Fold this protein.
Amino acid sequence: MNVKIGILLFLSIGINCFGAKAQVDINNCIFLPKDKKMVEEKLNAFSPEANQPIADLVVKIGLSFLETPYVAATLENGPDEKLVINLRQLDCTTFAENTLALARTVKLKKKDFQTFATELEKIRYRDGIRNLYPSRLHYFSEWIENNHKKGIISKTINEKGIKSDKAINYMSTHPADYPVLKEHPELIPAIAQREKELSKFGFMYFPKTNVANLYRYLQHGDIIGLTSTIDGVDINHVGIIVKKGNDFYLLHASLSGTKVLISKGPITDFIKPQSKNSGIMIARPVF
């Protein structure tokens, strides 16, 4: 089926993506029938494991996405920011978000697409409220902060690391890199204001200069952000930690690998001295 035709067909029959949070709005949700089927199949497959720790569920569900193609910018659909549900094509952040939303839905002992969509929206947007493009948690350090506030993850373990006070401003200073900002420059001030607040408070992380300290606190099932040495950027990449023996590996949607995979080498390969990653920030799923 043609993708655009599929979207229009599916939207035309009406979809309630927001559960009890809002009335049905067919203009604010984008997905294909295959996405709905994938969600329901995964929820049914993992429902017998609802009593497992959420960290274990995150890894097991994440592994079910292995070989899924890496595709960037699947969420970019205009300033109105429709809720995009796409399990067929993932980047590093949407991989983590979809996996976490599925795990939370399983823990809620639900098997329906509607509950999953509600969880995904709650995770992806500031305070769980989707209100135009700037409401998305574009910077992963804020994603961690806001989802900690919502009780979805814990960021507390990062206090064992050090504080970054770098200025975060890449989106507002490089709007041409973002299709929506390029077409709608009137949104840039709202993004810049959010960046100013992020820069003011900074974030805690584990620097690559002290791997031993990181390894003391890293756990199987942690969602991690690789913090950046690039000016204006907080986090370069996102993935899920998989523990094998005494070492930790990264389950992630890889740009260079073009798909979801487990890293061949341990997490330390991502924080070598010459890399553009300065360290690791941990988002620990809680339920």
Summary: Residues 153-285 form a domain with the putative xylanase like fold fold (CATH 2.30.260.10). The longest strand covers residues 235-244. The two ends are 38 Å apart (CA to CA).
